């Protein structure tokens, strides 16, 4: 069974399209009719029409509502409910192309030692197609160094074997954002990761409720994730990479806080920057 988890909060206007992109997977249609899957809608305290839309789209949907506690708690609640051997996430503002799961399942069945794979993406911002920059290039294999600068593994594009979350842990509920970045670091430390060089999801961005718009200074959460990463069983080279990336992100935060006249916050990250600069020498 594949368990598909859609966490959502007040995105009724986008949710139905996301759900239909799951129902329309060719893996479940035609010769794949009857393949076993479950679709879990994890409603993080929505106050719009989310519940009505989810419940009106058929009995394949497991609808679960919780108080508004954030996306990490919602994803973990979805994992608690999931019964599948494979786990897939779909953000409620993203869409899957028809062949997304069939391509990934073919790979996972052909390579039984592969723990997870992810695909390339099509980006749409406010209805306009956008070309990702060179720094967003995707990679296969042991990619620990590649996931430190930015969140490389989009959860909407990934497919996991269930045991992954038993081995690397779940989403950090102390992080209000960048929980995917934090997980990506732990994944890349533990496993080689297979990249499928085909754009099999559509990432829709630019809307006002995105976490990147809600929280200024997202690098605050990335610094926390990087400091957590230092507790992993890292090689000396990996430790140096993590500390160097902390310095880079602290520098960005210091400049941002100083521009906003927030001297105390700037001083916190100046001290971190100085401390980790010394540790990389």
Low-confidence region ranges = none
* Known CATH architecture of the largest domain: Alpha-Beta Complex
CATH topology of the largest domain: Spore Coat Polysaccharide Biosynthesis Protein SpsA, Chain A
**Helical stretch tally:** 11
Mean pLDDT: 93
What is the topology?
Blueprint: E1 2-8, H1 12-23, E2 37-44, H2 50-55, E3 61-66, H3 71-81, E4 86-89, E5 94-96, H4 100-110, E6 116-125, E7 128-130, H5 144-147, E8 159-161, H6 163-168, H7 179-190, E9 194-205, H8 211-214, H9 219-229, H10 236-259, H11 263-279
Parallel strand pairs: 1-2, 1-4, 2-3, 6-9
Antiparallel strand pairs: 4-8, 5-9, 6-7, 6-8
Helix pairs in contact: 7-9, 9-10, 10-11
List descriptors.
nine-stranded mixed sheet, 20% strand, 2 domains, 281 residues, Spore Coat Polysaccharide Biosynthesis Protein SpsA, Chain A, globular, alpha/beta, 9 strands
What is this structure, in a nutshell?
The chain is an alpha/beta fold and 281 residues long. It has helices spanning 12-23, 50-55, 71-81, 100-110, 144-147, 163-168, 179-190, 211-214, 219-229, 236-259, 263-279; strands at residues 2-8, 37-44, 61-66, 86-89, 94-96, 116-125, 128-130, 159-161, 194-205. Strand 6 and strand 7 form a beta hairpin.
Structure write-up:
There is one protein chain. By secondary structure, the protein is α/β, with parallel strands linked by helices. The protein folds into two domains: 2-209, Spore Coat Polysaccharide Biosynthesis Protein SpsA, Chain A (Alpha-Beta Complex), CATH 3.90.550; 219-279, no CATH class. It has helices at residues 12-23, 50-55, 71-81, 100-110, 144-147, 163-168, 179-190, 211-214, 219-229, 236-259, 263-279, and strands spanning 2-8, 37-44, 61-66, 86-89, 94-96, 116-125, 128-130, 159-161, 194-205. Strands 1, 2, 3, 4, 5, 6, 7, 8 and 9 form a nine-stranded mixed sheet that branches. The longest helix is centred in the C-terminal third of the chain and has 24 residues, at 236-259. The N and C termini lie far apart (49 Å).
């Amino acid at each position: 069974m594949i368990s598909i988890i859609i966490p959502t909060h007040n995105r009724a206007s986008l949710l139905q399209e996301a759900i239909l992109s799951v129902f329309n997977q060719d893996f479940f249609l035609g010769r794949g009719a009857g393949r076993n899957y479950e679709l879990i809608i994890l409603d993080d305290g929505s106050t719009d029409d989310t519940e009505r839309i989810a419940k009106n789209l058929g009995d394949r949907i497991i609808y679960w509502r919780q108080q508004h506690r954030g996306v990490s708690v919602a994803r973990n609640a979805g994992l608690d409910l999931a019964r599948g051997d494979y786990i897939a996430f779909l953000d409620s503002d993203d869409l899957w192309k028809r062949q997304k799961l069939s391509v990934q399942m073919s790979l996972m069945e052909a390579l039984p030692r592969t723990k997870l794979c992810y695909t390339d993406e099509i980006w749409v911002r406010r209805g306009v197609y956008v070309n990702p920059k060179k720094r967003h290039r995707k990679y296969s294999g042991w990619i620990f160094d590649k996931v430190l600068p930015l969140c490389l593994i989009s959860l909407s594009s990934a497919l996991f074997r269930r045991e992954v979350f038993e081995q690397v842990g779940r989403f950090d509920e102390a992080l209000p954002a960048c929980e995917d970045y934090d997980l990506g670091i732990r994944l890349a430390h533990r496993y080689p990761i297979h990249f499928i060089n085909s754009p099999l999801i559509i990432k829709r961005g630019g809307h006002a409720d995105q976490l990147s718009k809600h929280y200024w200074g997202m690098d605050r959460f990335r610094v926390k994730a990087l400091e957590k990463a230092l507790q992993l069983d890292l090689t000396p080279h990996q430790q140096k990479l993590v500390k160097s990336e902390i310095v880079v992100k602290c520098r960005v935060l210091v400049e941002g806080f100083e521009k906003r006249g927030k001297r105390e916050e700037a001083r916190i990250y100046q001290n971190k920057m100085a401390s980790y600069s010394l540790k990389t020498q």
